[in-house]
Write a structure and sequence with these properties.
30% of the residues lie in helices and 25% in strands. The chain is α+β, with helices and mostly antiparallel strands and 757 residues long. The longest helix has 28 residues. It is extended. About 2% of the residues have low confidence.
């Protein structure tokens, strides 16, 4: 009897198969096998929030097959992902397969490598019920909010809407940013930049700072002109020069959040794509027989920890010293401290092995896999390398009492920059990657080349991108690494948020839904409350709290809000303003509003029913272009034929099944005929013409006597004028095979026809 290993995905199963011998069978559950029912709440609130799980629709045959495999196996190992969700899947699998969860053999690994998989097999653990209960609590909380609050939204705003515990908070962030942008009032300010030349006629740039008393703000053209007039009429003198060597330290290896931010910034990938590719790299890629087949290339990609294993640290040290030299490795190993809220069960995201340099295995990876793998590889390697050393110079330049600053730097020792350039040098006084140092000395008089005053206006905070939203969610303690991408995917799918380029913008629906939830369910959408709830889930996971306690406390407050909201909706106390457009009603002169109709959204005058003006809208909510001219009806083609019923002329018209002859007196006369074409072949029965017609459900061309049905000759194949040399009947030809055969079924004559008719 073999041992059975159950993982979540087929790709992961294929990788692990290569690491275990013939005594193991590896199969996949393809995600969850059980969940709460979709049609009902599925949670007995009055009975300690007992959840009623059912097999997911469509998973029945898979569960039956897994039961059969488990029954015949010597041991069953549950090897789902190493997090709350993975632990819950293992627990559901154990229940579905009739395995006692307390006796189940649960294995997990942070990286899918041969050594990690074999070590896990040797050391199975029971299912961690604290992890399972943490996941169950989150699932039940989300179900209660969704099923209890959503009907309120249906009654007040729009049917089919859904309230989400964490998704609503994410939408609120985007809505509030949009409100900030609308309310923002630009403020004028000016900058002055001087292009100067030193004694060797080498150029440098100096930016206005202030005067001897400190920094000055130039808020108007008058302020700028005053400084400009003063400095252009005087000399620029170097007051002081400060030179230094600055160390620039590498960034830590990636967490889920920082990977999404950096891959968005550097690779222009969306959140969902980043996690999909990372999942592929984690589960395994076939690197060819010369590299040992399938390998998992990175560690688990849902983590907020910065910890790395001793083994990985030593492998990186050896790689750096061998490839770059001893001086590129720091004097002591680098360690990075995770946030206090981080779940430290997993390492940071790193390559699973230093054997697989990205450039050496590039041909086995897709373009996107290579880009993301190289980003992870470079960031991890750099995080273990020596600091970069930069030569910096800062000069203070004075003209007629006004102070200008000039700064520059270059790389003295690249260190980690040899591998990974973060691309942000703003703290060094310049946004460019490297500024050439220009030698100046104290007391030196610099020549003016150009002094340029420029007007600017302050700008509002930009809209969130997927990357900046993930960063904000993490900073506020909302969601966890495994939920960032589903949150974004959900709010876009529900039409609460839309993409404009890389930016996330709330829709009218998103804004109104947020307004309603904030007014009626303040706790659900409160940042601090949501973050505290995440901490409570962590406490359950760590064994410091229990599921019933957390659910009971939450529901006590929630049901009070729910009762008030339902009462307000029933009494008509909730006012939802209509969505305005920029379209002006040409009859009333007011802005038209958006309405939903049978065929989608349209713009309507708010003065209905006095004004019934409407305009169709496209899918982007913009007015459709109105066609000034109606499409001209195509004039029917005359045939010269006479209708045998009424004597009018027959014409050619087009219909659903092609062209046909019709009486020009339609609808008074409904006479129609098929359009036929003379084949030039005589009917073997009556000697009349054989013509083409169309028949059957697919309206396939066939051949018949023009006097049909008086003469019943017809054929699907092409008739010829040639007689059969054996029986004298007419010969027919297959349309595609070019096979000529006798029409007489009793005659077996046939031949291949090579000449094209």
């Amino acid at each position: 009897m073999s041992n059975l290993v159950i993982v979540e995905s087929p790709a992961k199963a294929n990788t692990i198969k290569g690491y275990l011998g013939s005594g193991y069978k590896v199969t996949a559950s393809k995600g969850h096998v059980r969940d709460l029912p979709k049609s009902t709440l599925g949670v007995d609130i009055d009975n300690n929030f007992e959840a009623r799980y059912i097999n997911i629709r469509g998973k029945g045959p898979l569960i039956t097959e897994l039961k059969k495999e488990a029954k015949n196996a010597n041991k069953v190992f549950l090897a789902t992902d190493p997090d709350r969700e993975g632990e819950a899947i293992s627990w559901h699998l154990a229940n579905a397969l009739g395995i006692d969860p307390s006796k189940a053999k649960r294995i997990s690994f942070n990286e899918i490598t041969k050594s990690a998989v074999k070590a896990a097999i040797k050391n199975p653990q029971p299912i961690n019920m604290d992890l399972v209960n943490s996941q169950q609590t989150r699932r039940i909380l989300d179900r209660i909010v969704g099923y209890k609050a959503s009907p309120f939204l249906w009654k007040t705003l729009k049917s089919g809407l859904s309230a989400g515990r964490v998704q609503s908070v994410a939408t609120r962030l985007i809505v509030e940013r949009e409100e900030e942008i609308r309310a923002f009032v630009p403020t004028e300010y000016w900058t002055i930049t001087a292009q100067l030349l030193n004694s060797q006629s080498k150029g440098l740039k100096a930016v206005f700072y202030g005067d001897k008393n400190g920094k000055m703000e130039l808020g108007s053209k008058e302020d700028a002109d005053k400084v400009f007039d003063a400095v252009t009429s005087g000399n620029f003198v170097v007051e002081s020069v400060k030179k230094a060597i600055k160390n620039r330290n590498p960034a830590p290896p990636f967490t889920t959040s920082t990977l999404q931010q950096e891959a968005s910034r550097k690779l222009n990938f969306r959140s969902q794509k980043i996690m999909q590719i990372a999942q592929e790299l984690y589960e395994g890629v076939n690197l060819g027989s010369e590299n040992g087949g399938v390998h998992g290339l990175i560690t688990y990609m849902r983590t907020d920890s910065l910890r790395i294993s001793q083994e990985a640290s030593e492998a990186a040290e050896n790689y750096i010293k061998t490839k770059y030299g001893e001086e590129y490795y720091p004097s002591s190993k680098r360690f990075y401290k995770s946030k206090s809220t981080a779940q430290d069960a997993h390492e940071a995201i790193r390559p699973s092995s230093m054997k697989f340099d990205p450039d050496n295995i590039k041909k086995y990876l897709s373009s996107d896999q290579y880009k993301l793998y190289k980003l992870i590889w470079d960031r991890f390697l750099a995080s273990q390398m020596a600091s970069a050393q930069l030569n910096t110079v800062n000069a203070e330049i004075v003209s007629n009492g006004y102070v200008f600053h000039s700064s520059g730097y270059n790389v003295k020792f690249p260190g980690f920059l040899s591998v990974y350039d973060p691309g942000d040098y703003s703290e060094l006084g310049d946004t460019e990657k490297q500024t050439k140092l220009v030698e100046v000395s104290e007391g030196e008089i610099l020549k003016q080349k150009e002094v340029l005053p420029e007007q600017h206006f302050t700008e509002p905070a930009p809209r969130y991108t997927e990357a900046s939203l993930v960063k904000q969610l993490e900073e506020k303690g909302i969601g966890r690494p495994s939920t960032y991408t589903p949150i974004i995917t959900t709010i876009i799918a529900r039409d609460y948020v839309t993409r404009e380029g890389k930016s996330l913008k709330p829709t009218y629906l998103g804004e109104m839904t947020t307004k309603l939830i904030m007014e009626n369910f303040p706790d659900i959408i409160d940042y601090k409350f949501t973050a505290q709830l995440e901490d409570r889930l962590d406490a359950i996971e760590n064994g410091n709290d229990n599921m019933l306690h957390v659910l009971s406390e939450f529901y006590e407050g929630f049901k009070v809000c729910l009762a008030k909201a339902e009462e307000a909706a029933k009494n008509g106390e909730i006012d939802i303003p209509p969505e305005e457009t920029d379209i002006i009603c040409e009859h009333c002169g007011v802005k038209m509003i958006v309405k939903n109709g049978r065929y989608g959204k349209f713009a309507a005058c708010p003065n209905y029913p006095e004004c019934r003006n409407t305009k169709p809208l496209d899918k982007n909510g913009k007015p459709k272009e109105e066609k000034n001219e109606k499409k001209e009806t195509k004039e029917a083609e005359k045939t010269g034929m006479t209708c045998e019923i009424c004597g009018s002329e027959m014409v050619i018209r087009s219909g659903k099944f092609g062209s046909f002859y019709a009486c020009s007196a339609y609808p008074k006369c409904r006479n129609t005929k098929q359009i036929t074409k003379d084949t030039g072949v005589k009917c073997p029965v009556c000697g009349s013409k054989i013509v083409t017609k169309q028949g059957g459900k697919k309206h396939i061309t066939f051949y018949s006597c023009e006097k049909y049905p008086e003469c019943n000759f017809s054929s699907w194949d092409i008739p010829t004028n040639e007689k059969c040399p054996e029986c004298g009947d007419i010969l027919l030809m297959k349309k595609r095979k070019k096979l000529v055969y006798c029409r007489n079924e009793k005659c077996n004559y046939s031949r291949e026809e090579t000449k094209k008719d």
